[in-house]
């Protein structure tokens, strides 16, 4: 009895003390784990301003203040672009990793001045205004990171927009010296004017290993579908001339041609169409009676009469865009800005952003050999469809063509959609203007049928080279 009484006298006092110690231990352990989870969540979901606020801008330092890099003659050369490259073979998607915002991170290399062993620059122009605008826009976007270890995509500060202004071999050597080059893996180059005389290749001639190419003149022979991105040739008039949006509908002219460097065979065919159809077709050329310069570039002439360019484009329902020495033409951007439906005659040309944009809704594509039938073909398109195409052409320019910023960010969004397909933009988001989207929400069946019922494209016949 005594023993049991002694046990009972200690037991009630001992057990609560043990429970209290265990309770404190578990509470402390739970608190540590909870704090760890909160800290991890804040790190993952904190706005990107947690990174350094430094942005890539030319104003941070003059081009002349950039480090000078001398290229030895023996510097390694990249291999020529691999035509078999695809995202699953030449791009390391694992570098992009999981991202709660589904946004790739893009790193821009610091500006450097590359010269050969004799001190001659690899570029005759240095950093162009267009390329600086492009890089600055990317640095201001949600894609940008200044932390190279977090980057999924790398963009050199070496300007290759215009192949005519760079030295091919030395530019390739400069690319190979980039610290993260790794045979071009996950690197992106922007080029709008590829090739050079006499053959004018449709892709950048600079050897670039496995780098992706955003190119402005791809043909079906040089374009690596699902890997490269076809971009427009930027028109400098986009920044200098403001064309107010014009309501779709009939215009003064039915067809207008405004390009000045058309091959003589095409020019002769257009003149024949002009003779057959009279005032319905306006055939313009450069003005021989004006002095050469920036002012003359904005003028076009027909039989001594001077027209303002690109304003005259708004006076026509259809505007001809013929291939020149290069497939990609800046005239396409001018035509879209004017709300004129482009009539594209450039066999094998990969239209800008055709991976996501439905060009049947904004243009008419005709094989070059059917130029003589152009008037008849265009006359067969219903008036209402022409108005829809005029509206769509203008919106394509506003959304994707009107600046280097628009071109650069559209390119990155296309690449982003490939890497995060579950979060990719839909066909409607890429192709429906905002007013069309709202109309579809109100009348989904009518709006859908109005766009799906009408489209126009002439299929290419076999072409022998």
From TrEMBL:
InterPro entries: Exostosin, Exostosin_GT47. The chain crosses the membrane at residues 24-46. Residues 256-283 form a coiled coil. Keywords: Coiled coil, Membrane, Transmembrane, Transmembrane helix. Residues 101-381 form the Exostosin GT47 domain. Pfam families: Exostosin_GT47. It comes from the Eukaryota. Belongs to the glycosyltransferase 47 family. This is Exostosin-2. The gene is EXT2_1.
